[in-house]
Amino acid sequence: MPKAFVTLKPGEQPTSDDIINFCRERLAHFKCPKSIEFGDLPKTSTGKIKKYELREKDWQGYERRVN
Question: Which of 3.40.630.30, 3.30.300.30, 1.10.730.10, 3.50.50.60 would CATH assign to domain 3-58?
Answer without folding.
Answer: 3.30.300.30
